[in-house]
Amino acid sequence: MEGEIMSSYETKKNCEIRVFESSDEMATDLAEFISQVSEISVKERGYFVIALSGGPLIRHMRKLCEAPYNKTLDWSKWYIFWAEERAVAKDHAESNYKLTREEFLSKVPTFNGHVYPINENATVEEAATDYEFIIRQLVKARTVGVSVSNDCPKFDLVLLNIGPDGHVASLFPNHPALELKDDWVTYITDSPEPPPERITFTLPVINSASNIAIVATGEDKAKAVSFAISDCNEGLGATSVPARMVQPTDGKLVWFLDEAAASSLEAGNAYEHQY
Prior knowledge:
Oligomer: single chain
């Protein structure tokens, strides 16, 4: 796998950056990464609980729909959530669930009963409450693990995109939702990107995951990636770049970047090539 990675850097504690020359190489490595986390989680706990974002992230997971993964992974042990979702119908063009179903779930043998879309018939506030209740029930059943640090759910893997403004999940710069400590799932009604109503995991839940992966492609993400990662940006207000606040409590964070998204890091010689 190392041969497919243009470069890899170890940065802050439990944080790794992987840079790829092509989207196909990124998809190949991401599939292998997810596969490894899945196999370890099933072996150690009996389940694999993953939270997804929408957008281009799902298309980068396409290799999991192909051999060998579509045959070798224990799909019956997968439990699938969304770290963010738009408050729209499940068949709406802007639904993360719809995109995931069409691009991924329809192509692998997961159990429908292990897939958890939000309640499309509720208000966005009710949908967030319902979603947290479902997670709490699975924590009680020990399907979802628990962080020993803060009693938050401990997802095996949370997969995130980063926006050009540095947002992750539906946690946007300088938004009050970034300050929440006790809620596991919250809602917003003022997203700067349409649609305005969304539910989202809170930072404590994201940071409690065993593994977090952030995927970024394109030059329009380069500045946000640099602000999120580089030590030279310590003076920035934390809430102005939400991705900078993704700091695993006792898990691991891996960045999957193409050359364009990593260009500001490389220009600043922020990290030393390891290979």
